[in-house]
């Protein structure tokens, strides 16, 4: 039988090996599901980790205004009435390039960066495959014979660079 001792705000429970031998009889409540970005009431959950701290950064107020405008927008297409709010948010974010990216970055430049990164990744994959091919070529080069006393062996290494 466990011994329970209360010390001010703490409760200390001493148990024996026999107490641990039997399965626990404690039933824990089911954990509540995470509410996500939109709360059951339809409000925005500004504490959602999916926002990545955007709601609390130096442009948090502007972000919340723009995001709220978009979320509650009835315009067609949705958010088309939020141009000014997003423009204000973008203006604020351009003041903190180290936090939100380059002040000069344009959408077209981002597309070009994505394409060039994709091209670089393709080149790395191609180079990696080429190196694997070269290593198999090196392994397939004719095996060397040990030279006898009166002859000298001349070995030529073949390397292929693509």
From TrEMBL:
Record's GO cellular component terms: mitochondrial intermembrane space
GO molecular function, one term: protein-disulfide reductase activity
Protein name: CHCH domain-containing protein
Compositional bias ranges of the Polar residues kind: 117-138
Localization of this protein: Mitochondrion
Keywords: Disulfide bond, Mitochondrion, Oxidoreductase, Protein transport, Redox-active center, Translocation, Transport
Ranges for region Disordered: 112-162
GO biological process terms on file: protein import into mitochondrial intermembrane space
Domain CHCH: residue ranges: 59-94
Native organism: Microctonus aethiopoides
InterPro entries assigned to the protein according to its UniProt record, in alphabetical order: CHCH, CHCHD4
């Amino acid at each position: 039988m466990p011994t329970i001792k209360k010390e001010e705000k703490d409760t200390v429970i001493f148990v024996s090996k026999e107490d641990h031998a039997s399965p626990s009889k404690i039933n824990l409540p089911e954990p509540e599901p995470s509410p996500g970005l939109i709360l059951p009431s339809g409000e925005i959950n500004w504490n959602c980790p999916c926002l990545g701290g955007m709601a609390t950064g130096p442009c948090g107020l502007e972000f919340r205004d723009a995001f709220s405008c978009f979320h509650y927008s009835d315009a067609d297409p949705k958010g088309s009435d939020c141009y000014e709010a997003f423009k204000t948010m973008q203006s604020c974010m351009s003041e903190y390039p180290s936090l939100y990216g380059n002040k000069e970055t344009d959408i077209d430049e981002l597309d070009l960066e994505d394409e060039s990164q994709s091209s670089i990744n393709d080149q790395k994959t191609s180079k990696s495959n080429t190196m694997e091919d070269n290593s198999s070529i090196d392994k397939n080069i004719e095996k060397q014979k040990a030279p006898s006393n009166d002859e000298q062996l001349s070995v030529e290494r073949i390397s292929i660079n693509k």
